[in-house]
Specification:
- The longest helix has 22 residues.
- The chain has about 290 residues and is of the alpha/beta class.
- The strands form 4 sheets. The chain has a 6-stranded parallel sheet with strand order 2-1-3-4-5-10, sandwiched between helices.
- It is built from 10 helices and 13 strands.
- The protein is globular, with a radius of gyration of 19 Å.
């Protein structure tokens, strides 16, 4: 039985990773929440990994409050970049394989076509810069790590746009305004978790874009959420990012569409279309 350490196990993705590992069987799963393990603390991370001696570390812990990162870049780099250095150091010491999660925010969103794994990052926000720092820490460690970039994550746990829209639809009568000049691939935490586990247990090194399929705007996605829940999608009104009031502190990529090229070219199955996963999630949440 292999031992797997999951950091950030109380988060939206971490909880699904733990569930997938336990359902799969054959793993001794150690689920470490933030309260259990502060990944920004070098001694705590090294102590945990050298004591547990896992075969695989699925590092899902991160500070993902994009706007808060903009006002506290030191914390962003501690929790999103330096933390990966600590985890990679621990993995090196015990021979564990590392899988860490990154983001579409490593790109500035100005490209006219989907981003592949071989495009040059150019983050425009503190959050994006800190996550790119984490990618570099994973690869610079020389341990054959796996880095998975994803985008627009939502799921059964934690705060996300699907849960917000369902709440607003049930409690308000007015229009819902969402931007239509930001496009990306909505990604569902359970599907993402399954691929993280697969890449980790296969010990596949390198950089992978992992998202559900089907590009849409936030405006279009909210219409799909309302439709899936039996509400009127006509309630949604499109606005431009420049018209948000108040404006968001951190810039968002206009184009967040990630081409899952490395998965596709490796012959690995892509995740479902996001509308299939959305129907499943709305049914669970209702």
């Amino acid at each position: 039985m292999s031992r797997v350490l999951v950091t950030g196990a109380g988060g939206q993705v971490g909880r699904e990773v733990v569930a997938r590992l336990e359902a799969h069987g054959g793993h001794d799963v150690v689920a470490a929440t933030r309260a259990d393990l502060d990944v920004g603390d070098h001694d705590a991370v090294l102590g945990a990994i050298t004591t547990l001696r896992p075969h695989l570390v699925l590092h899902t812990a991160a500070w993902t409050a994009v706007d808060a990162c903009e006002s506290d870049p030191d914390r962003a780099f501690r929790d999103n970049a330096l933390a990966v250095r600590h985890v990679a150091d621990g993995c090196r010491s015990v021979g564990a394989h590392l899988v860490t999660v990154s983001t579409d925010y490593v790109f500035d969103g100005t490209k006219a076509t989907p981003y592949t794994e071989w495009d040059t990052p150019a983050p425009a926000s503190a959050y994006g810069r800190s996550k790119l720092g984490g990618e570099r820490e994973a690869f610079d460690a020389g341990i054959g790590a796996t880095v998975v970039r994803t985008s627009w994550v939502c799921g059964e746990h934690g705060a996300n746009v699907v849960k917000t829209v369902l709440r607003l639809a049930a409690t308000t009568d007015g229009p819902l305004r969402f931007v239509d000049d930001q496009v990306g691939h909505p990604t569902f935490a359970d599907d993402l978790a399954s691929m993280l586990v697969r890449l980790g247990t296969d010990r596949r090194p390198g950089l992978f874009h992992v998202t559900n399929q089907g590009a849409t705007s936030w405006y279009g996605f909210v219409r799909e959420i309302l439709t899936a829940a039996g509400h009127d999608p006509g309630r949604v009104e499109p606005i431009r990012t420049a018209d948000l009031d108040p404006p968001r502190p951190a810039p968002r990529p206009a184009n967040s569409v990630l081409d899952n090229a490395a998965l596709r070219l490796s012959g690995l199955p892509l995740l479902d279309d996001h509308r299939v996963a959305l129907e499943r999630l709305v049914a669970r949440l209702r």
